[in-house]
Every structure is written in C-alpha cells, then in structure tokens.
Amino acid sequence: WLYANTMMAEFAWPLVTIAPFFLILSALLAGVKIPHVPTTILPVIVGGILAWISGKATFEGVSEAADQIGWKPALLHLTPFQDPARVMPYVGIAIPLALTVAIGSIQIRAMAANSGDEFNLRWTMVGDGLATIVASFFGGGSPWGMTVFIGHGAFKAMGAQV
Question: Distance between CA 30 and CA 57 in Å, rounded?
C-alpha cells in the first residue's frame, strides 16, 4: 500500500508516464542501453516531450514553479510534543512502519553486499534514524521516508558508483 500513491500518480497521466516507465523497465530488466548515455536520460526526455505535447506541461505551470524557487528554510515544529494525545492515533501505524523500514534497511544492506559493496549496518540504521528524527522536526522532510532505497544492484548496473 505504500507504493499505491506513486502508482496512482503514474497512471493519472498515462500518456505522459507509461512510455518513460517502460523505457526504465527495459533498461533495468532487459539491459537495453544507449552507448555513452546515462540510462535514465531517455525516459526523462521522452516524458518531457510527451508532457508538452499532451498539455500536461504548460508555460504557466513552469512560470508558477519557477516562482517557488528560493531560500525557504524549514520551521521547527514541536506541536506534537505539546499534545501527545494528537500523536496517539498514529502510533498503531507508526510502529509497524518503523519495523518494516528497519527490516528493509537490513535487507537492502544485504543486497548491496551481494553487489559487492559492504556497508556497516549499525551506521546505516543510525543514519536512517537520525535523518528521520531531524526531518520530523521540520514537517517530515520527504513523503518517501528517510531510509536507504532498494535497487542498489540496479543502480550499480546502470553505472552508479559509491
């Protein structure tokens, strides 16, 4: 269910998103590559062209997005600590999610080791935890969570380096 939001966004504009999605899949799963070109550049270009052709991308939208560029420091929020009763309804999902993330970090570290890159598990998990704590003070920081991401072997196969 965590991936559902991402997939719903993908399929909201199928003309724009499905072709780049399959280009990424063909690069990752079938090994289709263009020599001397990063694997993800073609899906980005195709998605951009399709967005402009279909009307999903507009000059007004780009102008509006450009207006958002600037220094906007996050504000520290301690409101949940002032009223723990507001937090309690979320504990039932927060604890299982935290356990899932911890187990996922262990598995992903093992996958990186299988790809030939050893990382210290303790420091990986401490980094995840500290990043999550700091982000929580500033409104979350990321809708995808503060954790290592699956796909180390695929990223390495595409030429990523540590």
Answer: 30
